[in-house]
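3-oxoacyl-[acyl-carrier-protein] reductase
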Amino acid sequence: MAHSGARVMVTALTDTYLKPLAEGMRVAGYPILAMTADATDTDDWQRTVDAALSEWGHIDVLINNLGATAGLNGTPISDDEYRFVLDINLTEAFKGCRAVGPHMIERGRGRVINISGFAARKGSPESLVYSTAKAGLARLTQTLALEWAPYGITVNCIAPGIFPDPETGDPQQIARSRENARETVPLGRVGELQEVGFLALYLASDASSYMTGETLYIDGGLSHS
């Protein structure tokens, strides 16, 4: 987004990755507003929206991108684990939309992009709550798209497959993911992070102005295999 001229606000629970990201973007000359916030907390969402409006006066695009999982693996999932995974993967997007929605409705325009996963279409072992939440995010996207269409707001969802992060991921795990992808992903490889970025840029742009309520799978065909 920043490469294309957008003024970007980024939030994260801690400064661990947020601070170096923000510093790197500022050094590169990109305008960025960064702050720590809990995306599952209603008050933090309001604080985030207030900061963005104070800095720039309006919000054009909301991207909800958060994820966590807890496996079953023969062991019952506790209530706390269940709530945690649902909050991270589904509730945070609901709260983000609820916080930003009134502003976009008042302006009569806006773009919402929810980041889901191929689990929204296809479940897998040891991902019971995660798959449930990601499928729920697809339905949230679809329903909100219908509710907000009269206000000129589009709501779409990106469902990525396997996208290792070479900067934060374990090198050995990334190598295993690349090797496994040759056998399990129809296109025979893992995804590159910029490929998700390109799709998000499309959904944020006027080029997608007639698209809403869609979940777009970018997984090399994995969800169809």
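thats it. Helices lie at 15-27, 42-56, 79-107, 128-148, 171-184, 193-204. The two ends are 31 Å apart (CA to CA). bye
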